[in-house]
Every structure is written in structure tokens, then in C-alpha cells.
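INFO batch 0412 | record 1 of 1 | parsing
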Amino acid sequence: MIPTLWYVILAVTLFVIGAAGVLLRRNVLIVLMSLELMLNSVTINLLAFGHVLQDLRGQIIAIFVIAITAAEVAVALGILVALLRNKHTLEVDELTILKG
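INFO prediction complete | emitting C-alpha cells
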């Protein structure tokens, strides 16, 4: 069996990579992918600790996190398509002014 510490190390690594992507990148699509990495790291922690504690609540919350993430991606990609049609760029610095 894989020790819980390995899951925590994996989750922390994914979260740090995601946070660095959110803070350092300027492309909106990369920022959204970095947010997905951060949410996946939370899901890994929920599943790992739910398994260790023999509690199904971690798995149930993980399913909700995955469902919310899928809805967030659908809405965000719709907004990105609309922004790309209007502004012709996905750079964060150029999208800060949302006036038509």
C-alpha cells in the first residue's frame, strides 16, 4: 500500500505548480489549467485522507469538487470563446478592461 505521505507530497506539488501558474502566467487558458491543477490537488488530499480515516465523506466531497470543476470549465470556456471573438487575444493584461 502506498503511504499517505506520498499522496500529500503529490498534492502539495500539484498545488504549488498550479499556484505558480496562476500567479506567473498571463494567458487566460494557462491560468484556467493551473486552477484545475489546484483543484485536483485538493481532490487527491480528500481521497487520501478519506481512505486513511475509513470515511466516505472525503470521496463524496471529491465527487462534488469534480462536478463543480466540470461546470466551471464549461462556463469559463464559453466566456473565453466570447472574449476571443471580441478582443482577439487571451492575454490577461489586455483583457482587464472589459469595455466594448
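INFO post-check: The chain is about 75% helix and 0% strand.
INFO record closed
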